[in-house]
Amino acid sequence: MISTWSEEWKRECEVAYLLSLPLPQRNALLDGVTGGSHDERGIKRTRGVAEVAALRAQIARLAEIQKRG
Predict the structure, then answer these.
(1) pTM for the whole thing?
(2) Angle between helical axes of 23-31 and 7-20 (0-180°, round to 10)
(3) Which of 6, 35, 38, 69 is deepest in the core (most CB within 10 A)?
């Protein structure tokens, strides 16, 4: 059981949210968007490359779990 006040719960919710996004939107949120009429920072710029890699791994793990049913 995970406390809803814990960092683990926060991470699970973040990963579930990211998985729910369409892939282009998810990638934009993770990597940021440059050019066009505006720039968006993205998680990579804020938290770093290693954090984005960890999030992508957790997203893939959750997607596999959901696929198995």
Answers:
(1) 0.84
(2) 130
(3) 6
